[in-house]
Write a structure and sequence with these properties.
34% helix, 26% strand, alpha/beta, 7-stranded mixed beta sheet
């Protein structure tokens, strides 16, 4: 069990899934949000992108952290066909993303940056997700009845499309939800 009695954890995330994972882990935390530009240099690939953005989110809090505070920032993308898929812009974009997953696999990559006023460390996790051949009807049902717009790659594995569409994962289920909680626990215990 982590001993965080002398530490205060700050989660810099609006994600209800990340917040719930922290609660379920038993970590006391507060939430602080700063809007940042999540653009990245075009030459970055895969975890280079998420590492860069997780660090960029932490930099927005430069010189604000107290001695006992640990800031947690993160970023998740779907890496598919050599491209980073982030949150969909609209219904057509969400449908297009879901169509591209049909009968293929992709990687979900999440990077986490732990920052104190003394140091900063970044780590990442990769999970391979396999989808069955999805019908147009299944894709449209999911996009129209669930909220894919706040999720990297336009889907939540813990939702209906994950129930009926995901045939196999290689790696952490929770990483696909948007936070590699097992690696976070391990890295926080060493931080």
């Amino acid at each position: 069990m982590l001993d965080l009695t002398d530490k205060h954890i700050i989660l810099a995330s609006k994600s209800p899934r990340r917040q719930q994972l922290f609660k379920d882990l038993g970590v006391n935390f507060s939430i602080k949000i700063k809007e940042i530009d999540e653009s990245f240099p075009s030459e970055l690939r895969a975890e280079e992108i998420t590492n860069y953005i997780a660090k960029k989110k932490a930099e927005a809090f430069d010189s604000e952290l107290k001695n006992n505070e640990i800031l947690v920032t993160s970023d998740t993308i779907v890496w598919h066909n050599g491209m980073a898929l982030e949150k969909p812009k609209n219904r057509a974009h969400a449908i297009e993303m879901m169509q591209s997953y049909s009968n293929t696999s992709h990687d979900v990559i999440t990077s986490v940056c732990l920052t104190s006023n003394k140091k900063s460390e970044v780590f990442h996790d990769v999970t391979e997700v396999h989808f069955k051949a999805l019908t147009q009807e299944e894709i449209e049902y999911y996009v129209d009845n669930f909220n894919p717009y706040d999720k990297a790659g336009a889907y939540g594995i813990q939702e209906w499309i994950g129930f009926i569409g995901v045939t196999k994962i290689v790696g952490s289920y929770f990483n696909v939800m948007g936070f590699p909680i097992h690696k976070f626990y391990e890295e926080l215990s060493k931080f």
